[in-house]
## 1
Amino acid sequence: MIESTVLRVGIAEFNVLKGEGKIKTTGLGSCIGLTMFDPINQVGGLAHIMLPTSEIARDQNFNVAKYADTAIPALLKKMYQFGASKENIHSKMAGGSQMFQIELDSMKIGYKNIVKCKEILQQLNIPIQAEDTGGSFGRTIELDVLNGRLSIRSIKFGIKEI
Amino acid sequence: MNTSNRFQPLQLDVLQEIGNIGSGNATTALSNLINKTVDMKVPRVNFGPFSNITESLGDAEKVVIAVYLRVIGETPGNMYFILSQKSANQLLSNVLKIEMNKDKEYSDFEISTLTEIGNILTSSYLSSLANLTHLKIYPSVPSLTMDMLGAVLSSGMMQCGQYDDYALLIETNFLEDNEKVEGHFIFIPDPESLDKIFHALGVPNQ
């Protein structure tokens, strides 16, 4: 028996896995855990996206994994490098909460993140197969690269699978 | 310059001292409130990438009770008062003598009690910072949540994230004398607030 890999993705990071194994990110609040999966070539990717758009970045050498508009194309590119093909890829996403009930504009990042991720996926013509977004609670997610199942754990609702 | 060497040793000392004075005031307030001795650890100043910042406080999936407020005024930022579930229960039952229904979620009364404690403590932290710097600093209405540490903290790093790949966090642990209640004060100033704080305290910028 070979023990299966669990690849961890931190906040404002992304990663790709081919073959058996899982990719995981913990403690998603208003951030989005965006996964893409190619079932034919068994390539899975996960990005822990923090903010909607890179237009606000001050530095030219910003971290592409942090923003929806740059993380999704970069993740896609990396999946191609691992042998994924565009026509097979679908996406699942989770997160985008509003953790605290303080009604400041800056606190509605979760909602803005969800909207932007969907917009970018649509532009890239990648279907969203399932999502578990919004609400006011944290999530930990794990993509199984064997079958594309996304398990979502929260304090409130336990474990569910999409 | 996005490097962890961004701060001079003197600036780091000042930031640590801000944590010291702010938390000192807040622990005194807590001590008065519960009528018990509260000890405070030396504050930690942590500057680094977002994932490291969360990791420095423990497992991102750890369940915590967090009172959050947005700091408004001349030095905007984010402020947290964080307790483990166990410590929150101790605070409610042993210290404040509130009878708790163990297996259930917190009642509205318990939530508002914890929120108010968080409010008093974070406000005293901020008012000491305002006195020290002579800057106008106001707390927003506080909000409480019980959830994963990572999810809770990342919300407070959004403002830093808009401009930067790093966040600065000033953290102080405190302990009630018999170590039953342990908690953290966390202040994450927005990046532009730091210049104002340094300027107000006469610390050279570079």
## 2
Amino acid sequence: MRYDQARWTEDEDRYEPLLAEKRSTTVDVGGTESALPEDLTRESLTLPDLSEPELTRHYTRLSAMNYGIENGPFPLGSCTMKYNPSFTEDVAALPSASVHPDRSKASVQGTLELLYRLQEYLGRIGGMDAVTLQPPAGAAGEFTGILIAKAYHENNGNDRTEVIVPDSAHGTNFASAALAGYDVVSLPGGEDGRVDLDALTAAVGDDTAALMLTNPNTLGLFERDITEIADIVHDAGGLLYYDGANLNALLGRARPGDMGFDVMHYNVHKTFATPHGGGGPGAGPVGVTEELTEFLPEPRVRRTDEHGNGFELFTPERSIGRVHGYQGNWLVLLKAYAYIARLGDVGLRDASAKAVLNANYLASQIEYDVPFGPFHHEFVASATNDAADIAKRMLDYGVHPPTTKWPEAVEQALMTEPTEIENRRTLDQLAKAFNAVTAEDEAMIETAPQRTAARRIDQATAARTPRLSWQALDEHDEQ
Amino acid sequence: MTNHDTGSPFAPHTPSETAAMLAAVGVDSEEELFDIPEDVLFDGEFGITRQSEQSVIEETAELLGENDDLTEFLGRGHYDHYVPSWVDHIADRSEFLTSYTQYQPEIAQGFLQALFEYQSILVELTGLPVANCSMYDAATALGEAATLTSRVRAATGETVLVPELLDARRRDVVENYVSGTELNVESYPMDDGNADLTALERRMDEDVALLYAETPTVRGTIEEQLSELGRLAHAADALFCLGTDIVALALLEEPASVGADIVVGEAGSLGLPMSYGMGLGLFACRERFLRQVPGRLVGASNDATDRRAYTLTLQTREQHIRRERATSNICTNQAWVALRTAMCIASHGPDGLVELANDCVTGARELADGLDAIDGVTAPVHDRHHFREFIARVRDAPDVRKRLETRGFAVHAIDDHHLQVCTTETNADERDRLCTAMEEVV
């Protein structure tokens, strides 16, 4: 398959001009027409000044220069881009969904019930006793989970200082643990791509607050020794944290709670198909076992009485407080609820089955070294050329490339996650793109992409002389 | 036929396709692909009934229909402004809505340019040269400002000084963000809704690492001594962080001109409908913190044909490269909300945005005057200029709040004797009716 992405240019500029380059106006702000005395106002304001048709065309042109899941496959490993059904947008757009967070509980019973139901559903799916919906992203969920672990240890009089993270884990794990004030201990991977039990035993100790683990891990491998891993961590007095990035592979087949995990986050924008709008918003609910429940952030939702009449927000007894100003990304959570209700038990289970089938099928069709296996919903192929170059060339084939050069355990890694939404024909096209690219000559690969809105972008210059606004652009152009 | 009834409605596999793919992989069933030890296999049910699309929409509409249809006069950091219809339609284009982080910039120029424009608009509004692509909300943006301070602060200061009236939720978030640093959070007194400069001057010493002030404040008052606050902070070698709001920025003193080193605040009030607290944190700062900025940055560069092009940049600060040494753990942010906010601002234009901000001042003044004319109500309580919201004193605030609710209005009771009332253009037509209802219930 060949691909040509739309590109908009103006004759004199060779690019779609910025809003400010099309037209902008400076207005006086203070003065007689101001509602405030002059010493409380700014002097002037300069902003783009365009008509609605000019704006709708500008943004429509920008949309045409952007690739989304409805344009074609998006097998970005660990990021799980799958179809975001439109009907969930209709649910989120219901006027009655639009409420202020300071409304009285009596006046938002519908909202509270939906939050309660989502808490319940996520708890059952993860095998967790209680769930908070507050964290506005996966990494915010990690931070929340680690703060909960910290509160638990402190409450038990333990001053533990370390969090262990496998070196193949998501970068957010390290950053979240550090943000919570922990020293991060990196755990090298074993020869089979999984946790090395001896290395883990050597790493844990009285200082261990938690081990953060993704299962299946970032190589797409199920940590078969999970029960032993849980025992080692628990015996040392630590907690086991589950990174939900790869929960797609387990729906209905295994639950973090049953595997011995004490705390986990869910990525609703991955597992439950809520759109990820160019990098967010997402939502990162956190689930915990019974003994950690009292530390959850406030507010949580519960039934007002045992007869199930009504719902209310409340603060858990030893709550860590808040990780978001209000109740998190409600509209995203609402879409996740709608998606889960649409699929139900059978649909969730089948989504996992097909995601795993697609990963294994695609891995079998590409002429790359794909170490380890069997794979859950993603695999990591090893490119013979530079993985970043391969990725650029794949763009010309109308596919978004896999995640590149990570995890580091695999040389020139192409971390690939086709998800359940691709049919065999698309997977074959993807495989063809993978295979065709490696057969091409180096000059072709190094000058790719040819058919996208922009050709290869000079990222080194962007970092060396940062120009982060149109104001900086003007200064630069004047030099 | 695909498995619309028995499987995921979004998995396209026909039974024969599934069989062929299993054969290609070399297994007999999907179950064989799951490499899960027996002792952790789950064989239960979630008990979640599968529903049709129509049924899900109807059921959620019915549930949400249980929310009372109230006219909201609520604020306290979360504000309702009209979103032009075209913004919904164009932002919902799937190329925006269903895309991921722009790790491959050549195929994501549209979103990158839109985010570059959002950053530029913040630079214009704040006067500061660096703005990021978004934080989750105002509270987390303030938390990130504090952790930035911990990385760049002068050797001794360990205190983040915040207003004593700071919204408890915001303070709570900041406390969590600094829990992994050496910093601690303390408050300074306020005087009639604004910072108490005399008390603050006494408090300032080299122990202060960050001085935080807000305008408008949590009570809707406009801070009148911003330059003095900035001077106090800098005289103590502390950073000055100003918390504000995307609409207020169009009218109130430019943060750079009052000495702000960092500006944080809420930007989702332009771009999002009322969303039960979902937001967009704005973050801008001085050039010297560039390599310590949390979150994502879009920069301009050139492509191989020397055309201008945009890319995520300075990624060596970020968690996926620097891991535990990253400037923050943020990965997913609020990019799509930032897109919508930029669209809204462009839709208003400079005149429209300034007019909207002026209306926030006059609207609050008119409504306060209207309520003040009622026997038993004093408004505004603070003798200040207000932006969108103000405090009204009544004899029994919780009771008045409750009785207003039965008449179709939502206001906030902050304690036994004080209501907080917020107005924007979205409830402007209901201000008179609120006053009438208030007259009946006080």
